[in-house]
Design brief:
Layout lengths: L2 E5 L2 H13 L5 E5 L5 E3 L2 E3 L1 H10 L17 H8 L10 H15 L4 H12 L4 E4 L6 E6 L2 E4 H7 L6 E7 L10 H7 L2 E4 L4 H12 L6 E4 L2 E2 L2 E2 L4 H7 L6 H7 L4 E7 L6 H5 L4 E5 L6 H17 L1
Parallel strand pairs: 1-2, 1-9, 2-5, 9-10, 10-13, 13-14
Antiparallel strand pairs: 3-4, 6-7, 6-8, 11-12
Helix pairs in contact: 1-2, 1-12
This protein binds ligand FO1.
Length: 304
């Protein structure tokens, strides 16, 4: 079964990791959000791409979900000592990725080509694609004005009240090479349990149309996001955060929806939206849980 998965950061990376253990590498493509990307300390930083790649390569920091395992922090500590910005914690090993990516981008290599070569170097077999090679930047409209995504997310710790989102650059951005083909040749497209507003929506705003059956996995369990501000965003946008709210968010696109056993009572309301459902355990702290959920999702797709 050929699968194309759309993923943001930590939650998306975990399911992608599970899928990579179950599917032959040639049958799995992961399209990653680049709306979180930004330029910082002169470096081109692609947090979600790196989170997905580090996770697939077994290099990820399992506590934070982002950055590298066994990381040291000498560079950022010295930048701080010099009075430079240290709010975005770049580890020493991680900085090598940003330095080398920035060097290649400056030489004119595309982000998708750099990602392909980094994946080879890290021994990652499935195809990992940035959603676009063009700069698309998620902007968060808040009660304090419009903020760049990492300014809102990391610097301001998601404290400002969210009013909406804008994906700057999206009108000019084309899907990266391979993205359209991966979506058109897949048997099914999986929306990983990533933030619908700021991880999956930016990808959808670039790829626009998906013709293959879409199955989404809820990032909201029991009214709370497993990680990150998704539930807070729903509340601030006047929507009660729930698995049902996520299903409604994707409503027009969905063939199937995977929700956690905790949210079993929402199943009937989701079925009433003409969306097929699968109720299972969706928390993925360990590799065994990622593989089990990947298998559950693939069996669900097979049954549709
Ligand atoms: N997230 C944080 O909450 N604090 C950080 O200091 C931080 C540093 C960081 C460095 C490299 C990287 O690839 C990701 C990093 N993240 C950090 C995560 C990043 O903000 C992601 O965009 C979010 O996790 C959303 O996916």
């Amino acid at each position: 079964m050929k699968i194309t998965a759309l993923a943001g950061g930590v939650g998306g990376a975990k399911l992608a990791h599970g899928l990579a253990h179950v599917l032959p590498p040639e049958d799995l493509t992961i399209i990653v959000n680049t709306g979180d990307d930004f330029e910082h300390l002169g470096l081109s930083i692609c947090p979600d791409l790196d989170t997905v790649c580090y996770t697939l390569a077994g290099l990820a920091n399992s506590e934070t979900g982002w950055g590298r395992a066994g990381e040291t922090w000498n560079t950022i500590a010295n930048i701080e000592r010099l009075g430079g910005p240290a709010w975005f914690r770049l580890g020493d090993q991680d900085i090598a990725t940003h330095l080398e990516r920035t060097r290649r981008l400056k030489e004119g290599q595309s982000l998708s080509s750099i990602t392909r070569e980094f994946c080879q170097a890290w021994g990652i077999q499935p195809t990992v694609l940035p959603m676009t090679d063009a700069p698309v930047r998620t902007m968060v409209n808040t009660n304090e004005g419009e903020l760049a995504f990492q300014e809102y997310f990391v610097h301001r710790r998601c404290e400002p009240i969210v009013k909406g989102f804008r994906f700057d650059g999206v009108t000019e951005a084309k899907p990266a090479p391979g993205v359209r083909e991966a979506l058109d040749t897949a048997d099914a497209v999986i929306f990983c349990p990533s933030n619908p507003w700021v991880s999956i929506d930016p990808i959808l705003s670039v790829v626009k149309k998906i013709t293959k059956p879409v199955i989404a996995v809820s990032p909201i369990i029991g009214g709370k996001a497993v990680k990150g501000p998704a539930a807070k965003m729903y509340t601030e946008l006047g929507i009660e955060p729930s698995a049902l709210a996520v299903a409604k968010h994707y409503r027009t696109t969905l063939a199937g929806f995977v929700l956690d056993t905790t949210d079993r009572e929402s199943e009937a309301q989701i079925i009433a939206l003409s969306i097929k459902t699968q109720v299972t355990d969706t928390l993925m702290n360990h590799l065994t849980e990622r593989v089990r959920l990947a298998n559950d999702v693939l069996h669900f797709i097979g049954s549709l």
